[in-house]
Amino acid sequence: MKAEKKGFLANEGFQSVLASFLCILVGILFGYIVLLLINGEGANKAILAILKNFMTYPSRAAQMKYLGNTLVKTAPLLMCALSVQFCYKAGLFNIGVAGQYVAGAGMCLYAALIWKLPWFLCVPFAMLAGAALAAVTGFLKAYRNVNEVISGIMLNWITLYSVNMLLSPAKEVSSPYTVQVASTNPSALIPSMGLGSLFSKNKYVTIAIPLSILCALLIWIVLNKTVFGYELRATGLNKDAAKYSGMKEKKNTILTLMIGGALAGMGASFLYLSGYEQWSCTQSSVPGMGFNGIAATFLGGLHPIGTVFSSYFIQHITSGGSFLDKAVYPSQISDLISSIIIYLCGFVLFFKTFLNSRLSARQDAGRKGGSGK
Amino acid sequence: MILLLQYTLLFASVLLLVALGGCFSEHSGVINLGLEGVMVMGSLGGALTMRFLPAQTPAFVMIFCVVLVSVLSGMLYSSLLGIAGINFKADQTLVGTAMNMLAAAAATVIVKSINIAENPDNVSSTVQYVNAKKAFLVNIGSFQFNWFMLIALCMLGVSHILLYKTRFGLRLMACGEHPQAADSVGINVARMRWAGVLISGFLGGLGGIVYITAGVSEWKFETGVAGFGFLALAVMIFGQWKPLNIALAALLFGFFRALSNVYSGFALLAALKLPGSVYNMMPYIISLLVLAFTSRNSRAPKAEGIPYDKGSR
Fold first, then answer.
1. pLDDT tens, residue by residue, A266-304
2. Which domains, ranges and CATH numbers included, belong to chain B?
């Protein structure tokens, strides 16, 4: 059996990529239909605007600048996606990533604006905050048998309100937003090291972007090449078997979530310490970055490198939504498309099983035909 | 004080309805984490009905139509979970999460499109229903009675009887405890699970419309329902998947949620000068604490969350 040549269709990696592309295709098609329903005339132009994103601009300089902006937001999204992925491998659904992201944002801005620390200290503080929050979820899961999804959601809201309170001393006088990092404490801005000049002097493009890709590689190495990664995946596949073979599954649960939390916190600092966005202290809903991370990680076929591309794609269409004609279409169409994509990702396992069973059926039929000759 | 009682009963009604929804779904063996999304869709259906029905509609017709549309939208939306989670054996946690995100995005898109079509300058995601809402209210002295409180109480009774006193309920619970055994005596597991999911959509959609009419007369759909679907799941766990216990748990949680609406009216609480955020956090903190102390000896249905595979007997 093993010596038999496998078709490329039976290749696990190829199936994942195929499945992701199908999800994207159906998701975009659905978005297009919704656009048609809202207003048939502009639908073609609108779907193109979402897909083109920064390429809507005619000049190359402007295109590069806005590509830079998309990348600035891709970095935190990728970190959130990695956080979800790392935990998912251990059988934990880290929906608390949204709260860990908020905790990271709150802590790094507090360190930057109130304590006036430089960026290389603010980032670890953000990681600590995310990890501490995730540790609560981990502890509750490991020792009190609390479903991590429910405790995660509760902590998301608790964190949102806490961060609003935490950051209100650093608020601008006349607006709900925190003061600019660039004017209050420039040393807290993550350095660009010349990267910005590649993107038409986009000052928000920093080393955060390559750092996030580096993190993806690191996660891949930890998961596949270390004992800890092996234990983690084993726990995810069968908790009881892992426990039986002597792995400390309680400790691993907490540690995994803490690493996930640190990744999400770091992601938040990548965005807020680039100066691209300010925190609004009257925010009444948890930022969507963490939830989009869930979309990105499943679309990326639960593979760190695939996630780099899927994160870019999700951010690409999310940013693309802002190029829609606001007087006709709501920009949330992009969110609609990405949530459809996650829903469809639920069918991926079924799709693969179906494909494999068809392939093996065909193979069997072929063998029978061959022996008949 | 009466205001506090009124809000407590209202929010308890919401939590009770949605938690009962979760209870039916979980007893059939499907974890419905998409209840938050079901609530959003149910409330959207109801809110749009209230907005588009003429204001002079008789109160009874108004209540009937609004409830009907909410319930139907909740059931329709929950069938997304049924298709993926039961027929295609998808990961129920993933599908539930996707449903929550999808509901928030879809509701915002729908409401914004309607608003934009009416007036291009109005890009808000708010639906107003000041007049229509009056149909639901009856003033008894200074206590504002809401018909939904009665509906919630009826649903509690119906749920208890349906779950424990009928053949359907016992079969439903069998599918959540040991689907293989249920199947072996000729119960159609997939059909029972579909029933559980649709009932959860029914109750979730109803809970959604109660939530957005509690205390306000317009709703901004961008904010969704602020984690209420998950609070309801916490209520369900605290109530140990039993309708009567769930009702008591809902009253407790409803009280803390109501406190954040009316705390400024109490001299004692106002004197503490705590920021409003503290009261907003309260229900979530309480639920975390409660979960930490009650999940240990959880009586969750044994087979919940595991897709039923006929081959794995």
1. 999 999 999 888 998 888 888 888 888 988 998 998 899
2. 2-294 (1.10.3470)
CA distance B140 to chain A (A): 34
Contact A339 B84 (CB under 8 A): no
Give the side-chain half-sphere CA count within 13 A for A285. 16
Taking CB atoms and an 8 Å limit, are B291 and A151 in contact across chains?
Answer: yes
> What letter would DSSP give residue A321?
G
- Residue in A150, A157, A327 closest to B281 by CB: A157
Minimal CA separation from A182 to chain B, in Å: 28
What are the C-alpha distances in Å from A136 to residues A99, A131, A148, B281, B303?
12, 9, 10, 16, 27
Place of tokens 């950051």: A167
User: Cβ contacts (< 8 Å) between A151 and chain B: which residues?
Assistant: 288, 291
Report DSSP letters for A151-181, one per residue.
HHHHHHHHHHHHHHHHHGGGB-SSSSBBPPH
Which of B92, B108, B113, B280 to mutate to probe the A interface, most A CBs <10 Å?
B113
Interface test with B, best of A32, A84, A151 (most B CBs within 10 A): A151
The letter for the amino acid at A349 is L
Residue B77 contacts residue B26 (beta carbons within 8 Å): no
A162 neighbourhood in chain B, CB within 8 Å: 277, 281
Identify which of A6-20, A135-149, B45-59 has the greatest average pLDDT. Answer: A135-149
Residue B299's pLDDT band, with cuts at 50, 70 and 90, is: confident
A165/B224 Cβ within 8 A: no
- One-letter amino acid identity for A136? V
Whole-prediction pTM: 0.89
Could you tell me if B5 and B143 are in contact, meaning their C-beta atoms sit under 8 angstroms apart? yes
What span, in angstroms and rounded, lies between the C-alpha atoms of A352 and B165? 42
**Domains of chain A, residue spans:** 60-287
